[in-house]
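Hey, I'm writing a tutorial for new members on how sequence and structure tokens pair up, and I'd like a real worked example in the thread rather than a made-up one. If someone can provide the structure for the chain below, I'll link this post from the tutorial.
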Amino acid sequence: MTNKNFIDISQAVTPGLARRLAAILYDTLLVFGLLLLASMVITLPVGIFAGEAASNALASNPLFKIWLAIVPPAFFLLFWMKGGQTLGMRSWRLRVIRADGTPLGWTDALKRFCFALISWLPLGLGYFWILFDRDNLTWHDRLSGTRLIMLAKN
């Protein structure tokens, strides 16, 4: 009996850098929109009920900063857990899976997110590593034990 969630890695095509960056750009725009929405959910009521000065004071409030810091990881982790694709990945026919071809668990998704941040730190070198890697994998693909695959056109 085969697992319908399993993907045969030997048959999978790994996307190149351009396709990955296009999906990242798309998702970045979505995350900025979500950050704006998350900010408005707090600042609009505070501004209406407590005044503009109180609304402006939120910028230095640590709880407000934590609230906003939760948005990007929540976006990626929830989408990766729900089907292995963010909206940007869906548009570019990409899916993230574990190196063994199975869907990501919470720890896999969290590791991938954290290692992806590390891949960006040295001017994106962890992403550009794909140009030199024999399997077209980024640093965070290797470190988290996950990988992106391209999906067939429908």
